[in-house]
Amino acid sequence: MGMARDGRKPVARSDRASGRGFPPTGEPFDVMQPSSDTQACIPAPAGERPYPAPPAYPASLLRVLALSGHGLWMLLGLALALGIYRGGRSEALLPLALGAVFVSTGLLAACLHLPGLSEWHGWYPARRSRPTREALLVLAAYLPMLAVGGLVRGDNTFWATRAAGAALALCSAASLIYSVNRYRKRLSAGALRCSAQLPISRIVAAWYAGGLWMWLCLAAQDGAVHPAGTRPWIMVLLMLALLLGLIEGLRWQALGQADTRSTGSRGRTDRFVAALFTYAVPSLALLVVDLSDAGVPLVALAAVSCLLGRTIEHRAYEGVLARLCRAERAGRGP
């Protein structure tokens, strides 16, 4: 190597330091620890997009908690916008706060950098990275939530309260739909076709789970199931359970045609347990509450049972989708 004119030996500059010769890198991903709901991906060969990894049970639980929180916000916002919600400040603040806790639990876990839960809607807050569009859309729902919390009063018929409630419902629905669509874009072509009912399924599941938690909030404040409107509310929840079961049946039927392992003994067991906790136990609790004065404990049992059932179903379904993506990639060959 020659000498420079001033007699000093030239120093070779690294392309990595100068930023030339290397493509921009994204956020690192820990393959051994699956991350939260829709963002964890298995690395793919060069030129191919990564597909979502099957979530672990803690990640699925956080996902379902957020789903229930958004369902609470959607139902509360819609009821306030239509002017049909119960009067009273605490009647609105309790479900509003509970929904905020459910939605924020995943963010808190990501900020604490817990193993396998270091990201929240594609955002790694513990690594001081920029929030993704999906995370910003979820965070945007906090604005009408805070507005509703500050505006709710006695009869909740003030026009600003109703407008804030409508904004809360719309932002919650938009964040759910955007998250599901972003997840589906990471799937292979075959898995994408099989998951066509996933967006509407998540919305109905949010209504159903959120409805059970909202009923628990109202019953806990009364010390018993609220006498006014109990049977209509029970009928609404039962119809949502029926609709959700129908949509999920279509989803699993489409997966069964593409992946025979989803109808195997393990897949059938997971689906049976999920259906037992999601539909059988809550429906029985709803009917017993209507026929007796059991009150709050049975409503709490229905809500927690639905949470467990949705967690099992969420993990099983996304696990089958990930296996289908892997099978399609293996079938194409290198």
Rg to the nearest angstrom? 24 Å
What percentage of the residues does DSSP assign to strands (E)? under 5%
H/I helix tally: 11
Structural class: mainly alpha
Query: What is the name of the CATH architecture?
Result: Up-down Bundle
Shape: globular
Structure in a nutshell:
The protein is mostly helical.
Ordered list of secondary-structure elements with their pairings:
Blueprint: H1 15-18, E1 41-42, E2 51-52, H2 57-82, H3 89-111, H4 133-140, H5 142-151, H6 159-185, H7 189-194, H8 198-222, H9 230-258, H10 265-291, H11 296-332
Antiparallel strand pairs: 1-2
Question: Keywords, please?
Answer:
single chain; 334 residues; mainly alpha; Formate dehydrogenase/DMSO reductase fold; two-stranded antiparallel ribbon; 11 helices; 2 strands; 66% helix
